[in-house]
Amino acid sequence: MNSDTSPTARALLALELVQGSPGITADRLADKLGVSERATRRYVGILREAGIPIESVRGPYGGYRVGRGLRLPPLMFSAVEALGLVMAVLDGHHDPRDPTDPVGSALGKLVRALPEPVAAQAEAVRRATAPAPDRAAARPDPETTTTLVQACSNRRRVRLGYRSEAGSEWSGEVDPWAVVVRHGRWYLLCWSHTADARRAYRIDRVREVEVLDEAFSPPADLDPIATLEEHLAVGWEYEAEVVIDAPVDVLTRCLPRALGRLEPLDAVSTRLVGSTGNPWWYAQQLAAIPASYRIVGGPELRETARVVAQRLMTASENASS
């Protein structure tokens, strides 16, 4: 950096360095700026005077970092705008968990500067998102999503106005456990007081949200991703029961949880119990199992699997002729 660089420019560069390397020490920061440690402290003071929460920790493991604020310094995003950016990144199917990727790095800076409750939920969403393209992806309203994320964090009951896929509308109270993103769709995992049961609602179908005064406690051992996928595997039109010639621990690693519940029969075989609204998709997933299996429940699935198997046999015969 040139010796005639203005204090303002050095202060802004100091901010960029602190944002990019949380916990950077005073001597490293001084080296990057090409100034003394005393001058570095002066630039940090300039940032603090501008309302930017630069925190410092003394000791061998101390350093500077940008603290939590109501808005993102210095671009001054609101929480709704910041979460909207997070959602846009996830909808773009980038890998938000890779800190070496420019998008992942930028998203990390956003998450670090968000207010703590919103940051915790945004980070959970980032970890739970599968960056796989999906033409059927549906992006919910950022403000609605922000309200639900904050209600999850604050453990406050909400009243939802909801429109189902069939077009029917209803209103009811739920305890919002978590917001989870899977395959381009945003779900609210919750306990419905109307149904007195666990539910997962598409957030893009939520029409209105009212945060209530009642508090709640989510299940202590809640795994939002696993719980959502288990929930999405039950209650569909067509039942499925499959016996697989493989131990349950092997299948747990290779089968999508959305297929259903795995039950060990013995040391070398497992029962898969689930349901689906699309037997063709389910049969295709079963065809990828690296073990022999038998469909013992679900006439629609058995018939669909028979047709899929015949197509595969025909394709193999055509290829060899």
Any chance you could write out the topology, listing elements then pairs?
Elements: H1 7-20, H2 26-33, H3 37-49, E1 54-57, E2 63-66, H4 79-91, H5 102-113, H6 116-128, H7 142-154, E3 156-163, E4 169-182, E5 185-192, E6 197-202, E7 206-215, H8 224-232, E8 238-244, H9 248-254, E9 261-266, E10 269-276, H10 279-287, E11 293-297, H11 299-320
Antiparallel strand pairs: 1-2, 3-4, 3-7, 4-5, 5-6, 8-10, 8-11, 9-10
Task: Give your account of this protein's structure.
The chain has helices spanning 7-20, 26-33, 37-49, 79-91, 102-113, 116-128, 142-154, 224-232, 248-254, 279-287, 299-320, and strands spanning 54-57, 63-66, 156-163, 169-182, 185-192, 197-202, 206-215, 238-244, 261-266, 269-276, 293-297. The protein has 321 residues and is α+β, with helices and mostly antiparallel strands. The strands form 3 sheets. It has a 5-stranded antiparallel beta sheet. It has a 4-stranded antiparallel beta sheet with strand order 9-10-8-11, covered by helices on one side. A two-stranded antiparallel sheet has the order 1-2. The radius of gyration is 26 Å and the shape is elongated.
Task: Write a brief caption for the model.
The chain is of the alpha+beta class and 321 residues long. The chain is built from 11 helices and 11 strands.
Please provide the ordered H/E string of secondary-structure elements: HHHEEHHHHEEEEEHEHEEHEH
Give the DSSP E fraction (strand runs of 2 or more residues): 15-25%
Largest sheet: 5 strands, antiparallel
- Multimeric status of the protein: single chain
The count of β-strands is: 11
Distance between the termini: 71 Å
Low-pLDDT stretches are none
Figure out the total of helices.
11
Strand order of the largest sheet: 6-5-4-3-7
Q: Please, what is the average pLDDT?
A: 82
- The level of helicity is 40-55%
Structural class: alpha+beta
What is the approximate shape? elongated
Radius of gyration: 26 Å
